[in-house]
Amino acid sequence: MQRLLSLATMIALGGGVWMFLSGGGLDQLAVDANAPPTQAAPTAGAWNPGANAPANPPAFPQATTANMPVTIGAAAPQLNDGPTIRIASFNIQVFGDKKLSDSRLAYTLAKIIQQFDVVAIQEIRTQNDRHMEDFVRLVNSAGAHYDYVVGPRLGNSKSTEQYAYVFNTDKIMIDRVSVYTVGDPDNLLHREPLVASFSTKVDASVAFTFTLVNVHTDPDAPVLAQELQALAEVYRVVRRAGGNEDDVIMLGDFNADDQKMGQTRLGMIPDLKPLVRGAGVFSNTRQNQLYDNLLIHTPSTTEYLGRSGVYNYAQPLNMSVAQAEMVSDHFPVWAEFSAYERDYNGRIASRATTAVR
């Protein structure tokens, strides 16, 4: 653990590493933590994932704050009306050339991404270096303005994967010097997390700045237990390496629910809480497992607005489970945050002056 800590710290402080710089909705039907999930029944003429994109593709009405469910255990009191951002994690199963070449699948994925301001993506599997560039071009084809960073190919097998962040440049800026892959000389992790720091596009003196740690664990039980233990050290390393940045959000496919994580060193870090949790809350397409999550340090990240959940994209398109799984075997998980930096008392915190209401 000490070697992982020291090397990752040097990497971050050295400004370094594995940095790949490229590229220039749906109704928010998420799972309420207090209610069991529902699956819309497919109807005649429903979404056909094998077909080419139709002349009149299915409608994707924009999500609104009004229909966003509130998960249990909100980390902060509600703010008054003001700019917000949505951060999400999405394991796009075997996201490679085949999936992107199917115009209906690619169109659906692009529309899902557009529902969020920052999306951490896992399981990119391709040798095509233009894959994410082509995908983000599709995301932007209807007038959106997204950009991306993508990490190196990682893994202890021949089937390597990449992480990426896709973000809405109308609302989010990335610190490109901050992008790095955590060092892991003892090979404690199957795929080392990709780290990046972001800021909202509001007055710089009050902008919410945050660091994301994108993870995808190995589901094999003995390896998974080891990885969840190691991720506790990763979290501490990234937080220390970030200097004054205390808003560190670890997100991704943990292959473990909130209960299982709570029994590991990761889950035992004081005040580090999963935002997606509760009985009957599942993030896989079959709706029987909670694999994906966002973890925040609740005393620090008071910008969290208490709204989070699982984005079930199958419902507005009347997909069957089999159809939904052609998009991915995971649904995205998301959480909503204020665009303004806040201090511990719930006030907007100015870096240039004292805290103001």
Integer count of domains:
1
Instruction: Indicate the CATH architecture.
Output: 4-Layer Sandwich
Uncertain segments are 5-45, 65-79, 353-357
Structural class: alpha+beta
> Average pLDDT value?
81
Find the CATH superfamily. Answer: Endonuclease/exonuclease/phosphatase
For the CA atoms, what is the radius of gyration? 19 Å
How many DSSP-defined strands? 13
CATH domain class name: Alpha Beta
Q: Could you spell the SSE succession in H and E letters?
A: HEEHHEHEEEEEHEHEEEHE
Sequence of strands across the biggest β-sheet? 1-4-5-3-2-13-12
How helix-rich are the residues, as a percent range? 10-25%
Shape: globular
Q: What's a quick, concise take on this entry?
A:
The protein has 357 residues and is of the alpha+beta class.
Summarize the helices and strands and which ones pair or pack.
Elements: H1 2-13, E1 21-22, E2 84-95, H2 97-101, H3 103-113, E3 118-124, H4 131-139, E4 146-150, E5 162-168, E6 172-181, E7 194-200, E8 209-216, H5 221-241, E9 248-253, H6 258-262, E10 272-274, E11 292-297, E12 304-310, H7 321-327, E13 333-338
Parallel strand pairs: 2-3, 8-9
Antiparallel strand pairs: 1-4, 2-13, 3-5, 4-5, 6-7, 7-8, 9-11, 10-11, 12-13
Helix pairs in contact: 1-5, 3-4
What characteristics describe this protein?
disordered C terminus; 20% helix; seven-stranded mixed beta sheet; Deoxyribonuclease I, Chain A; 13 strands; six-stranded mixed beta sheet; Endo/exonuclease/phosphatase; alpha+beta; 357 residues; 7 helices; single chain
Structural overview:
- GO terms for molecular function: DNA nuclease activity; endonuclease activity; exonuclease activity.
- Belongs to the DNase I family.
- This is Endonuclease/Exonuclease/phosphatase family protein.
- The chain is an alpha+beta fold.
- The protein has a single domain, classed as Endonuclease/exonuclease/phosphatase (Deoxyribonuclease I, Chain A, 4-Layer Sandwich).
- It contains seven helices and 13 strands.
- The chain has helices at 2-13, 97-101, 103-113, 131-139, 221-241, 258-262, 321-327; strands at 21-22, 84-95, 118-124, 146-150, 162-168, 172-181, 194-200, 209-216, 248-253, 272-274, 292-297, 304-310, 333-338.
- The strands form two sheets. It has a seven-stranded mixed β-sheet with strand order 1-4-5-3-2-13-12.
- Strand 7 and strand 8 (209-216) form a beta hairpin.
- Helix 1 packs across helix 5 (221-241) and helix 3 (103-113) crosses helix 4.
- The radius of gyration is 19 Å and the shape is globular.
- The N and C termini lie far apart (42 Å).
- 46% of the residues are buried.
- The model is unreliable at 5-45, 65-79 and 353-357 (pLDDT under 50).
